[in-house]
Amino acid sequence: MANVWAIKSGNWSDTTIWNTGALPGNGDTVAANGYTVTIDMDLVGSYAPAAIQTSNNLQAGTCQCHADGIWYEHHTCSPGACRRKTVWKPADVRVENWPASSRRSCCQSGDFQYQPITLCDGGVTMANVWAIKSGNWSDTTVWNTGALPGNGDTVAANGHTVTIDMDLVGSYAPAAIRTSNIGGTAGGNFVIASNRQIGDASHTVEIGGSESTTTVITIQSGNYDVTFYANVTGGSSTSAYGIGNYSTGTVNVTGNVTGGSNNHAYGIANNSTDTVTVNVTGNVTGGSNNHAYGIGNYSTGTVTVTGNVTGGSGNSAYGIRNNSTGTVTVTGNVTGGPGSAYGINNNSSGTVNVTG
Q1: Which of 32-36, 51-55, 275-279 has the largest mean confidence?
Q2: Contacting residues for 67 by C-beta, under 8 A, at least 6 apart
Q3: Per the CB 3.0–4.6 Å rule, which of 59, 118, 234, 311 could disulfide with 337?
Q4: Cβ within 8 Å of residue 153, ≥6 positions away
């Protein structure tokens, strides 16, 4: 049983109009929440709800509050986790994450008709957030929650293309960015076409991993400098890179880079056709499948790693493969994995420098 409400107008049979991301069913109390919902299916059997109403107060246990001169969004606790919900009033509400000073004092007076909430996990809110259409990251209508992702959130493209048009730092740095199916559809892509920063010294973002079935972040052709505070991992499908770089700018990664679990699923694929610099401060490791390199360098530029480089557990899962005339410089130890999974494979006339 659950309280279920619409987050936009549309057909009852469309799972994206519901706050749960699923169709209402037995035991659910369903509210229009100010929207127009067309009942385009028979509400029988497992799809028959307990009640249908037009109220907007189903978020009992949530609150809206004002502290430090800023309006904060609703949150509600579910077993084991907290999930951010959409704010519907006032119309000009500013969506922010809760500051530590307000997490437990906010809403104690019972602002509006809402009751105080109990925050989970020490006051850190976490949610699965996914795109419901292609568009810009900064557009709240792109997201199933109706709000921008923030700290603790796992964000998925859900089969769409989302342009990261803002720096994902501070309260806007998510916990993870993936192309998994948490919203019901695997795949999609996040693209960068400007100078950007993802994560910061206080917020390390997990990019990619086994849940990702396509390249997670593509830095498009152009001259863009992008900085990541992130651990970057290749995905679970062929050529599903954690980061695919086609820019001629500089890519800086503070964090570990690891190959994925399928063929050629590199942690980072440096595919620029021109001189480019990739700097990694962290360890680089090959993946668990054939040719799942930690870094595949196909550029004439420079790859610099301050950290250890290790071959993976897959066949020829090199820590780094230098497949061009570029230069690879490692300050750290280089170790091979099982079989032919070399720490570094220099498959070109490029230069490899190792201090370790």
Answers
A1: 275-279
A2: 99, 101, 102, 105, 106
A3: 311
A4: 84, 126, 127, 128, 129, 174, 175, 176
